[in-house]
Amino acid sequence: MLWTISGSKLKDERQPADGRQSSVRGSVPKKLVIPAAAGALLLCVGAYYFATRTPGADTHVARDFEKILTEVCRAPKIPIPDYTGVETFFEFLMNPDVNFCYSWIEFGGEKLPLASQSEEECNDEVRKAKFMCFNDEFEMNLDPCLVYSFAKDLDSQFERDMHLFSCETHVFDTQIEEGEHVQRSEFWYEHRWDISEFPYDLPPGEKLNPAKNEDNSNLPTLRRSMDFITTMLNHKGREIKFVKSDLLGREWILLKQIITYHDFADFRQIGLRVHLPPKTRSMSTKERHDTYLQLYQTFQGLSCLGYRYVMSRPIKYYKGGVRVPEMNRTFYPAYEINFAKDLNFVKDTKASTTVN
Prior knowledge:
The protein has helices spanning 30-52, 65-72, 86-93, 157-164, 226-232, 251-260, 285-304, 343-355, and strands at 104-107, 110-115, 122-127, 130-133, 146-150, 168-172, 181-183, 188-191, 193-195, 200-202, 207-209, 214-215, 221-224, 239-240, 242-245, 266-267, 269-275, 307-314, 322-324, 329-331, 334-341. The protein is globular and about 50 Å long. Helices cover 27% and strands 25% of the residues. Residues 1-24 are annotated as: Disordered. Residues 129-286 form the Methyltransferase domain.
């Protein structure tokens, strides 16, 4: 496999700016007071509704993932084995197609000395680095370059790298305090949105991760579906060169949303961290079977749509492991995985359309 950084379109080394961007006495008949009070109350309720409602949510009709999965897998572009149990999931997870991408570039991340999972030795681990497949057909050096980033790291290094690469990057993170939409620089936009199956808002203080006692502090959590995001940002029908995710737990929802709304944008590559269910071992056999079936369906959907599974890297700085009784084996709790759309299927579709 060739690792190269040749042909990149770095233009400068500018750092993005930090955007922090007379009363009248008289009597009123009682029968007029009640209707007036009721009217005022209705006005107040109406004003509150229109001030707090999620734009477009009242007219949003969510698609059914299972139905879309059935449709796209009727004639799968890349067939993969049917699910027969948790072994099927891990067989896919551990065996990417390492020959599809012949050129890679790493973005973001920094090397940190961190204890390995076994805690018996100390390894240098690249933290939250993302790899992009730079095969010629993806034209990563050409504009326009549009990137989605779900959940940014504390140092925002991936977003800084994308800025230097002149890629228009849209960050989706629930901890953006300056406003719902912030423009950091010419190419760097941030939105206080989280991914979801349909658009809705959570009030401030709502528990986001009870297990870790995390909440959304003083900020409301604005959850949005992929069709909402692409439409509101005027990206519908656009080519999105890379979708990056460091979401904690909602990454599986993101994958389902990409599949469900695959016709809303041309998602070329996906690089994300996936977390395995932490209570895998304590589940019943049926619970494990059903839980991993739900996760495997995302692999099926992407494969049916023509995405190659091209990289899998274990995250070694998480402590503990996920024990799978059926396999008598322990896996790392999280993995960095990559999917790249096989554009040969796109060419075949265009050629078929032209002939017809």
